[in-house]
């Protein structure tokens, strides 16, 4: 028996009050944002950070001279996000069956973003496609020219051969009148008119095609940029926003902007140009009639502008409530088994009906605005047309205007009224797009708390993966310290196991070693180098990770083993499958490694998923392993395979293990016992049992039955 080490930390309450094997995350935490420890925290003065080390946390600023990405108001550091999504707080909103779940913050109120500011930021994504926009604008100009030409040809036919034929018939009489030359001339005018109409139809096709292609190109860039930015955000941020709301941002909100670039912004600008040109042409045809139009047109514009404000508020409410409904739907579908087992279908349906009613209410308000707007708009339009018809008839009777000139004026007037009437629709597109853009930029303006080292320190050669926690403390933004005074090391090739009750801080230590969070105090080093200074990509490339919830992506088994890592080859996969005993799982599948895996690995059993997860970690031959053991029960044969696979994974590698199996605890070179965020005991399995302290009582409750077996 080795000599027992002295116990560490405060006195230990009876551990029977809390189960050892609980949830896989530390409970009761606020969103991840390391906070400075002020004076008086926890009844004592705050400690200063280590000498010559900048305090880590939310007060970091981007490095000077760093480049900003497109559409960003601030610099967004690049960090990897291949870490578990389970760090952070339980949400605080009513959810399924009375549980507390995440709920999207209120965002259907106006934000302090002017339209021009939104357009300025969107222009960053449109700038690479300037040539396409210019081409689209050129096509619009060509179509507009053809639209102007067609009425002019009609006027030429009426005031030319038609009028000349009437005058000739009146002059020579019906018997001597020869209509042939006039019909030929009229036929030529008709052919020209028909050609202009057909050419305009072709131009219309190119207009729609070019605008759609241009808009889709911008949307592709924006969606790609948004998705890449989301992947760089801290994992705890994802606990503050429902998954369904994020899906709405990346899909429907982005798609909503497509109309801005296809039938919104560029068409609106062209319509304004068209109004100015047509108004000038109307004055050229008849100044008297044009003055009537000029007098009544501001009424039409005023109605459209009044509609603008209400439309934006209505569309913002629709987008926000749709996002909440999607978020709740995604949450319910993810937990449908729990809903059915606890017979919460009626309650869930009621909640969904409430979300749906809220969404319908917002939609009905939008419909009401349109139902009110368009009749008013039509009345003003008809008033303008009626005034022109009456005044134009008088002008023709007085001989001040020909019939052809009136028809030319009338058709050109439609070219003026049409864009003015569509101002409301254009504003509708703009306001809906602005509402979506504000929500998208809200995400793009979210910066990772973790700073990216600039320049990063490369991994040392040789890389031994010697880990040290030096006086580490960590607290969330609005909560108390989760862990404090944590100091231990994982020598190269050794295994350190962490045990403790739920909420003791085990998951926090895992996330600190993953660098999904930085310590509030102290530091974590790898081979003497601060983890915060290492190149994240290089560090995680040599890291093996196995989680309690073995996440498998939809795709093939081979895809899940490779995960895009260049160092994983077919040979390394074969060795990993053999070493982890997962080869039996593959051989049972109909297509072997090419077997399709359903979302989250639903087509595989719990044990099969765990074996594949261990094989995935082995395939990259990691120097450091982080292993959060699963707590689910499996059959004895699978349990034996998992133990063999775990032993192979940990052999000869530095490893931090959140232990739940007795076999893993016994094999560990050192065991750390966490209680209320502190290490209260440490030593080997035998040493800790000999102390007859906290670990011994945990062992008696948790492992005695397994030990006897």
Give the overall shape, derived from the CA principal axes.
Answer: elongated
Discrete helix count: 19
Number of strands: 12
The Rg value, from CA coordinates, equals 36 Å
CATH topology of the domain at 128-286 and 401-445: ABC transporter transmembrane region fold
Range of strand content = 5-15%
Largest beta-sheet details: 6 strands, mixed
- Residues in helices, as a percent range: 55-70%
Describe it.
The protein is an alpha/beta fold. Among the domains are: about 130-285 and about 400-445, ABC transporter transmembrane region fold; about 455-540 and about 625-630 and about 655-705, Rossmann fold, CATH 3.40.50. The chain is built from 19 helices and twelve strands. It has helices spanning about 115-125, 130-170, 180-230, 245-285, 285-335, 335-340, 345-395, 405-445, 505-515, 535-540, 555-560, 570-580, 585-590, 605-620, 635-650, 660-665, 685-690, 695-700, 705-709; strands at about 465-475, 480-490, 495-500, 520-525, 530, 545, 555, 595, 625-630, 655-660, 670-675, 680-685. It has a six-stranded mixed beta sheet, sandwiched between helices. A hairpin with a 2-residue loop joins strand 4 and strand 5 (about 530).
Task: Map the helices and strands.
Elements (H helix, E strand, L loop, with lengths): L114 H12 L3 H43 L7 H53 L10 H43 L1 H48 L1 H6 L3 H53 L5 H42 L22 E9 L5 E10 L4 E6 L5 H9 L6 E6 L2 E2 L5 H6 L1 E4 L8 E2 H6 L7 H10 L3 H6 L7 E2 L8 H14 L4 E5 L7 H15 L3 E5 L3 H6 L2 E6 L2 E6 L1 H7 L2 H9 L1 H5 L1
Parallel strand pairs: 3-10, 3-11, 6-9, 9-10
Antiparallel strand pairs: 1-2, 1-4, 4-5, 7-8, 11-12
Helix pairs in contact: 2-3, 2-4, 2-8, 3-4, 4-5, 4-8, 5-7, 5-8, 7-8, 12-14, 14-15
